[in-house]
Amino acid sequence: MYFLGIDLGSSSIKLALVEVATGKSVAVVQQPQTEMGMYAQQKGWAEQDPMDWWNHVCMGIAQLKKAYGISEKEIKGIGIAYQMHGLVVVDDDGHPLRQSIIWCDSRAVDMGNTAYEAIGQSKCDAQLLNSPANFTASKLRWVQEMEPEVYVRIHKFMLPGDFLVYKLSGAYTTTISGLSEGIFWDFQKGEISRDVVKHFGFSEEMFPEVVDTFSEQATVSAQGAKESGLQEGTPILYRAGDQPNNALSLNVFHPGEVASTGGTSGVVYAITDSLSAKECSRVNNFAHVNYHKDKAPRIGKLLCVNGAGIQYRWLLNNLHVDSYEEMNQLASAVDVGSDGLCILPFGNGAERMLLNQDVGTRIVHLNLNRHDKGHMCRAALEGIAFSFVYGMEIMKTDGLEAKVIRAGNDNLYRSAIFSTTVATLIQQEIEIYDTTGAIGAARACTISGNGQEAFSAYMKNDYIKTFAPSANAAPYKEAYARWKKELELIIN
């Protein structure tokens, strides 16, 4: 018997099957095989068709069943992870009224900033733990103002994962974690924010029903079964945004536990029981998957570094080397500190942790007589690692105390230079695990019936290695101080 995990990203949808008894991953597929399309009618816009998501999910389920000889009767639960902050609006018949405005779309920034001032900065910080900024509430306001003919036809608005649940079950539901990522949740009052609803003039009838993250949220309907190939009555047992889900996938649930990823962009997601949000202009705060309004808070502090793996990929494409492995070998021949060469890796747009400044990539103190490819590779890895550490220092001022750091076995964390640099500067071991968001979403199905301990037991075979701080931290600290000085000269 199996659990099915669905991970709806903006580039592809991954689906995983895990054994109910052991949590062992038995199959992972991706739809489509190439990157999903994105519509950008104007600069700063990003949209996708929600029905494309649904069609790819259905194709992925069919692919899993055929390739691995799985019957729909063997699938006993469904878990869903999804790209955060997106907006889907549907009419009375559940049909999308327009394409989804997805997470990276920036058209509603000004509306969010206006709301921050109108509601009150201190009230937003204390009750929403965020500025409305460019999140789902502001995107819905954009539709209200710019497409009134669409807005008046809205029956329900949803997040991307809520839409998949609706297509499977016919039920309009969401979670507190989801509402918090849309900046709709009042953490002080434990309810949908009446300040946000009042400011934007939304009707509460547009909100889906709130269900628990770990629960039988809905079951597959006859229509959902017909289209998806799943069995009618199969329960949907879990749903979360991609970053909270990535943390769950790494068994990060409690204060002091931190999850990190090092892909094209970098993420540090830390759990705290504090409702402090004094750094909310640089760090986002959301209800974690195990948040409950009547218990001690479980808040996920999310820091994103846009200029991470994309910097290393740019070097790969422009240094005429064959692979990341070759780059890592070149870098390992260079001493800590890259002989004074510094790279500031912020060439992937405005950085929220730098108060939305777009400083670009900077290569500093390049000596044409001494520095070669190896220095460039090492300086890039160190620069990206330094940006993670800089972000963690910001989070520390907001109450973060990291006790355990876990990361997936993705591009940057495969590098001993990168991982050791981070571990040394924060003086904390970094545990590496082999898991994915889709596998985590599938495994999370066990929690509603068997508790978090059953989920944690699934992970015993995922551990790969631990990167420990270097015994000689001095050269790392010196290199970081030089890098930080260059960054602060630019941003100040």
Can you offer a commentary on this structure?
It contains 18 helices and 23 strands. By secondary structure, the chain is α+β, with helices and mostly antiparallel strands. It is globular and about 70 Å long. Helix 2 packs across helix 4, helix 11 runs antiparallel to helix 13 and helix 12 packs across helix 13. The protein has a seven-stranded mixed sheet. The chain has a six-stranded mixed sheet with strand order 3-2-1-5-14-13. The chain has a two-stranded antiparallel ribbon with strand order 4-7. The protein has two domains: 244 residues, ATPase, nucleotide binding domain (Nucleotidyltransferase, domain 5, 2-Layer Sandwich), CATH 3.30.420.40; 215 residues, ATPase, nucleotide binding domain (Nucleotidyltransferase, domain 5, 2-Layer Sandwich). The longest helix has 25 residues.
Put the structure in a nutshell.
With 492 residues, this protein is an alpha+beta fold. The chain is built from 18 helices and 23 strands.
- Fill in the CATH topology of the largest domain: Nucleotidyltransferase, domain 5
Major sheet details: 7 strands, mixed
Instruction: Please list the strands of the largest sheet in the order they lie side by side.
Output: 17-18-16-15-21-22-23
The CATH class of the largest domain is identified as: Alpha Beta
Strand content: 15-25%
Based on Cα principal axes, name the global outline: globular
Give the end-to-end Cα distance, rounded to a whole number of Å: 58 Å
**Contiguous runs where pLDDT drops below 50 for at least 5 residues:** none
Kindly state the number of beta strands.
23
Counted by DSSP, the helix tally is 18
User: What is the CA-based Rg, rounded?
Assistant: 22 Å
What class do helices, strands and sheet pairing give?
alpha+beta
Compute the average pLDDT: 95
